[in-house]
Design goal:
This protein is an all-alpha fold. The chain has two domains: 54 residues, Homeodomain-like (Arc Repressor Mutant, subunit A, Orthogonal Bundle), CATH 1.10.10.60; 115 residues, Tetracycline Repressor, domain 2, CATH 1.10.357. The longest helix has 23 residues.
Length: 184
């Protein structure tokens, strides 16, 4: 059965996400990804150019923030933690990025783009208007908590954190994120 180029690209991308997630950037190979996708390695190169570009495509991640305007302003921290947990659990792309960002320049660049283009603008809208100048610092501190949580829960799988229920994580981390958002 012949696939369209769009279908072939999608199959390659899915195989790349799987391989990068399981093996990390350094250990994943174009040949291995091609084999997983059932295509010739030349097809991977044709559609994506090189391993770095394939990784960048595989690690493209939208945090899909909901409209938090309807949320209780005093409980935004809890809502944000819950949202991040749901996103991490639903899509391996961010785990791939986190795993690779310490050793791969492209992954680190992607992680910074997510921070600058998605998290920082959200925090600017949620932080108190009188303290808008601090939104960048607030977003950075939120990132430290969320990325630390993700590293411990999804990459290192530290037993106490990995075994906690989603509600328990939200309960423990929500107040900290709320403090970073509200400044109180």
């Amino acid at each position: 059965m012949r696939r369209s180029s769009a279908e072939t690209k999608a199959v390659i991308l899915a195989a790349a996400r799987e391989r990068f997630g399981a093996a990390g950037f350094q250990a994943a190979t174009i040949r291995g990804i091609a084999a997983d996708a059932g295509v010739d390695p030349a097809m991977v190169m044709r559609y994506y150019g090189n391993k770095d570009k394939l990784f960048a495509a595989a690690a493209d991640f939208d945090l899909q923030f909901p409209d938090f305007a309807a949320n209780d302003r005093d409980r935004l921290g809890w809502s944000l933690v819950r949202h991040f947990l749901e996103r991490w659990e639903a899509d391996d792309a961010l785990v791939i990025l986190l795993r690779s960002s310490a050793t791969n320049v492209e992954a680190a660049h992607r992680m910074r783009e997510i921070f600058v283009n998605q998290l920082q603008p959200l925090v600017a809208t949620l932080a108190p208007a009188a303290e808008a100048a601090e939104a960048s610092a607030r977003a950075g501190l939120i990132a430290t908590q969320i990325l630390g949580l993700a590293l411990c829960r999804f990459v290192l799988r530290l037993p106490p954190v990995a075994e906690m229920s989603r509600d328990d994580v939200v309960h423990w981390l929500g107040p900290t994120i709320q403090r970073y958002l509200a400044g109180t």
